[in-house]
Specification:
4 helices, alpha+beta, globular
Length: about 140
């Protein structure tokens, strides 16, 4: 079955109820709430979604960036029913080629299970692992 998938960028194009349903099941954002999703999207450089022929949102991703030097891909998620059809790869390709991010030359992401997918898009295991640092606190309880 060939699917007619539509890709859209911009916060106004997203169905945040559906995005929240999807991401609340993802291992990195269990239990995320819609207000947190919306706030994250509005403070991102770019959001992208994929939509089925019927107009239902079936995938989502966002980019945190200064639009000059650095960009971080996060929250890329495809509904289980639509996985393994190239949807996430297409979204990443669209983001990497987006004119708003044309000057970016440092791209990062974190994945626990999709290394092969991101390698097909040009990502590699970080070349300077001793330089990367983090502060990771618990999720605020009121979210």
């Amino acid at each position: 079955m060939i699917m007619d998938i539509t890709y859209k960028c911009g916060s106004d194009s997203m169905d945040y109820k559906m995005v929240t349903e999807m991401l609340s099941q993802a291992y990195w954002s269990i239990g995320i709430k819609e207000d947190e999703m919306k706030k994250a999207a509005l403070n991102s450089a770019l959001v992208i979604g994929a939509f089925s022929e019927e107009g239902r949102q079936i995938a989502y991703g966002r980019v945190i960036s200064d639009k000059t030097r650095f960009a971080y891909l996060t929250d890329f998620y495809v509904d289980e029913e639509f996985r393994h059809k190239g949807i996430c790869r297409k979204m990443v390709e669209l983001v990497l080629a987006h004119p708003d991010l044309a000057d970016v030359y440092q791209w990062l992401l974190v994945t626990g299970d999709a290394h092969g997918l991101y390698e097909k898009c040009g990502f590699k295991v970080i070349s300077r692992p001793k330089d990367l640092m983090e502060i990771r606190g618990p999720r605020p309880k009121d979210r």
